[in-house]
Amino acid sequence: MKPDTLGAATAKTANAAERKAFLVKHMVTIMFIALSLAGYILAGMTPFLFLMDIVARVSRNAFLVLSLIIPVMAGMGLNFSIVLGAMAGQAVLIFVTHWGVNGLPGILLCLVLVTPLAMFLGYLTGKLFNKTKGQEMIAGLILAFFAQGIYELIFLQFVGGIIPMNNTTLVMSSGIGIRTTVDLTGGLKYGMDWPGQLWGNDTLLRPTLPWAFLSVIAAIVVGYLLYVFVFKGKRPSPPPLIASALALGYASWWSIVQIQESTQINWIRVPFLTWIVIAALCAFILFFSKTKLGQDMRAVGQDRHVAAVAGIKVNRVRIIAIMMSMVMAGWGHIIFLQNMGAFSTYGSHEQIGLYSVAALLIGGATVSKATIGQALLGVLLFHTLFIVSPAAGRQVFGDAQVGEYFRVFVAYGVIGVTLAMHAWKTLLQNRARQEL
Amino acid sequence: MKTVLDFLKNLGLARLIILGFFVFLCAAAILLRLNLAELLTSSLARIGMWGVLVLAMLPAIVSGIGPNFGVSLGILCGLVGGLTSLEMAYRLEGVVELGGGALFFIAILVSMPFAVMTGIGYGWLLNRVKGSEMMIATYVGFSVVSIMKLAWLFLPYSSPEMAWPIGRGVRVQISLANRGITRILNDFLSFRIGDVVVPTGLLLFVALCCFLMWLFLRSKTGTAMYAAGDNPRFAEAAGVNVNRQRIVGTILSTVLGAVGILVYAQSYGFMQLYEGPMFMPFVAVAAVLIGGASVKRATITHVVVGTILFLGIQVVAIPVANAFTADWSSMGEISRKIIQNGVILYALTQAGGD
Predict the structure, then answer these.
(1) To the nearest whole angstrom, how far is the Cα of B196 from the nearest Cα of chain A?
(2) Which candidate, B79, B102, B108, B279, places its Cα nearest to that of B170?
(3) What CA–CA distance (Å, rounded) separates A432 from B237?
(4) Quick check: is A219 in a domain?
(5) C-beta of residue A116 within 8 angstroms of C-beta of residue A331
(6) The CATH number of the domain where A275 resides is what?
(7) Which domain holds residue A83?
């Protein structure tokens, strides 16, 4: 065999191996893209209804999912205890609704008030996690159940009695305990999504979907140009660059067509302030991972013992990671509920941990690595599946229940499979290390 | 004095608080002149009801996989057995009349092969995730319960007491009364002392299971299993196949889960499907931990003490809270949540990190 054909052959096998490695690495995400597409086609929904739903769901859930990233960085796994942050957010919402502060000012007040509360809860949780190193996830899960008991004790038994509250719309007719649902309509509902609400301004920071897309695309292009030419950043390799350029080009063409033909799509309003807040959080997480503390967190996540030897206060760093995650979860849940407009006092926070973690994992994250891109892609895919599966179930089996059960199974299943795969990998790595 | 202090130290703060709470509840029940006979009757029934399910934790902890947060797998096997036995009774109507007792044993027999197969697979999985068994078990349990929710919609059970008259799938709650399975164990040889009803058959059945487990733990396999859980490296060096012992422990735990739910269902009078089994493992885990077990060590005594204490609290707490003030109607459920999850958290912190 000639040397150059031999080289070509090895290059070919290397390429094939690379492609296989890529497929294996992104198996979960690829599977869910296929599943979402299949569901979308089977469900036979109109693009208008689908887009309206997905815009609302992604806008209200993204912040919560992003709140999971920092503990992963610190090697503490998937933070199931964000449920406590959500409880703090909900508690603050109840009190601000009681005081009657409405709209955007009310939301700002909520965000300010929830911060110290979530920091306190995060501190306690971090302490607990330092006592259960290696078992943080199960501890976080059980802690969420435990906190549910305390939450019920406070809001079902103490409010109205030990904690006085005179409010017939919020408190049950017996005078004790908050009603099982709290309605935010006319109060904090859409406080962030619709900032001009109090002044009767319909359009302030509420562009239509095509215009929102165009502004985001413009922001991405400007940001990229600044990054490459002003800050002299590293250029990405051509294939992803061309792919992104094509995707952005298609999206802008699509948006312009929608505007010109003034289709139904133009009725969809985008909560732009919420998008800006989410973008700001992404920027913060990126910035934070470059700081000294962020680097320390990574070091702790890589190997606690090495980090400790290097002089990093491991326990302190871990507590800070949980406190940050908890505050973000509190804010995220407030954003979530102001969009929902009403919530079940004793239930709406319970599933937050499950659904946020599942969304993150569907985006391709693992127990030890999670990025912003994975979080955002995961929210998109998970909620696509959530929207289409009841409709697909009705179309295929004549029963929406099938689709509903299926999506819940997907949430639990993806967590179970990812956890098991990670644990197995860790076990094999440890064994290999011992044999060396 | 020193032994008393040692005893208290072994008990731990969390258990002391729970024991104190139980004593307080009992004292309050007496002072508030509640109907003690009624409380005792329902306590005995509740303790028996949960006994086998709590016992299912024992082989899991002893073999080293830790408290079995995935015992819902066994519970599901038991439910499949129960449904199949009801379906048999329906299909064989007019051919053979099957009594309640026969149906109960058919249910156990049918669920056995499922439980053993599930146990093997589940044990195989747990051997691959050593160190994270509790979390994985929890999510395997959740996943399987939710996929079974789909299965309940499709499984071909047609008996009218199970299937919805219109629509798809089996009912959420299936009554056992029509086939005479309800309280088949509870009422066997049951007698009264004053106003207290003693469910003899139920308690005997639980005692029998405990005794068999006690015997097993003293057998050759039992000793090997104990060694595998106690110190895997040492056991391996001594020629014990640790992974195999862990699978045996998982199978036993799953089988006991299947039997346990059938015992539970006959006492309760209903089988609960869909969401029903989802959170049952946590109750069983908490009970054995309250009894003094840790995530690494457990005995039959822990099972018995824990079941009596935890289920006793659940029975007494609600009427006591209601007697104090009508506004505290949710206090029973709230105290259960706090105690159950508080004690699991406490056990996790005691196990210590790596």
Answers:
(1) 32
(2) B79
(3) 19
(4) no
(5) no
(6) 1.10.3470
(7) 27-206+269-435
**Binary contact (A133, B132; C-beta < 8 A):** no
**All residues at 6 or more sequence positions from B264 whose CB lies less than 8 Å from its CB, including other chains:** B49, B50, B52, B53
Q: How far apart are CA A118 and CA A85, in angstroms?
A: 6
Q: Which of B223, B254, B243, B269 is nearest to B77 (CA)?
A: B254
Q: Quick one: pLDDT at residue A5?
A: 56
Closest-CA residue of B relative to A139 is B345
pLDDT in tens, A323-352: 999 999 999 999 999 999 999 999 888 889
**Total count of domains within chain A:** 1
Q: Which amino acid is at A310?
A: A
Distances (CA, A) of A218 to A59, A272, B172, B305: 19, 15, 53, 68
Mean pLDDT of all residues in B42-50: 92
Report residue A84 as tokens.
Answer: 């406590």
- Under 8 Å between Cβ of A295 and A302: no
- Angstrom distance (rounded) from CA B147 to CA B142: 9
For residues B311 and A408, what is the distance between their CA atoms, to the nearest angstrom? 31
CA–CA distance, A422 with A420 (Å, rounded to integer): 5
The domain B14-351 is placed in CATH, from the list 1.20.140, 1.20.120, 1.10.3470, 3.30.43, at: 1.10.3470
pLDDT digits (tens, 9 = 90+) for A205-221: 888 899 999 999 999 99
Within-domain flag for A12: no
- Radius of gyration, alpha carbons of chain A: 24
Assigned domain for A252 exists: no
Please tell me which residue, B208 or A157, carries the higher pLDDT value: B208
pTM as predicted: 0.90
d(CA B54, CA B259): 11
Q: What ipTM was predicted for this assembly?
A: 0.90
Q: Do B349 and A128 touch (CB under 8 A)?
A: yes
Q: Shortest CB distance from B135 goes to which of A137, A152, A174?
A: A137
Q: Hey, where are the domains in chain B?
A: 14-351
- Residue to mutate among A76, A142, A159, with most B CBs inside 10 A, is A142
Q: Write the burial class of residue B202 (CB in 10 Å: 0-12 exposed, 13-18 middle, 19+ buried).
A: buried
Q: Does residue A301 sit within a domain?
A: yes
Residues 6+ apart with CB under 8 A from B6: none
